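Question: I have long wanted to understand how a fold can be written as tokens. Here is the record:
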Amino acid sequence: MTTQNERIVSGMRPTGPLHLGHHFGVLANWLKLQEQHECFFFVADWHALTTEYADPKRIKGFVPGLVLDWVAAGLDPKKCVIFQQSQVKEHAELHLLLSMMTPVGWLERCPTYKEVAQELSGQKDLATYGFLGYPVLMCSDIILYKASAVPVGQDQLPHLELTREIARRFNFLHCPENAPFFPEPKAMLTEEAKLPGLDGRKMSKSYGNSISLGEPLSEIAPKVKTMLTDKNRLRRADPGDPDVCNLFPYHKLMTSPELCAEIREGCTKASLGCVDCKKLLMESLTRFLEPVHERRNALLGDPERLWAILAEGNDRARAVASKNIADIRQALNLDF
């Protein structure tokens, strides 16, 4: 559980346009957090280099696009700090300092290290220090701001525990016993809200089965018409099962509970066909995306605004980071 006004840090790598899966998996939670806590949300462009180091050209173009998607989705730079990781150099300095005291064994046992390396085997050479050591950079991103909580999914708990271990080690080695410098950030477990792709697989840009937040409704409509439904419902008169249908997870997130109940009953009793269900989903998608597109178009009409948001956020983040890094240097007797 968290209390009011805790400091929270979270980031996202700039790898391309965000889709509905990103919104309901991450952004929807960020929108709630900005109303209750002191939030720092950053564009993790240095993290993107861990897998894109051989061809980093696209990262620069993805940075403003990511901020555009965030603000269009509802992140408010007046309620949270939106900044760019590489523009706050203190992240790199703390990463260097923490890497000097982090045991290699801690990094090698990180579950994601082997999983991602195996997943991308044959596609990219990830036998690099940067990939092995990225949890140290992630730790730096968090504890540089003395965050007390981090929003994570269940699968990310090992990463956060490593952050806690590194913070604990620094405090043990360099701080008086009764005055630890870094708080050990706790997990703010986020509710699972994963959307399947249009074809039932994981939603992914690489699979071509996603709906982007900035995609025109005229392009979304044909996609919805071809969405996978209950495979066992072969005819209109056959009863269906919403729990195995690819449409229903979308309805649960974007359609009113009352209408969801009607859809479930209509599907199971075969009084509602899949074509009608898709029409209702398109109506829900339209209601959800229209305000997102409105904010997006306003920002596209004022492109300098995006860079202004980042510049202001970088200044605010740097003010906190520079104060803390000065205290860290002093703790390490490096305050020359």
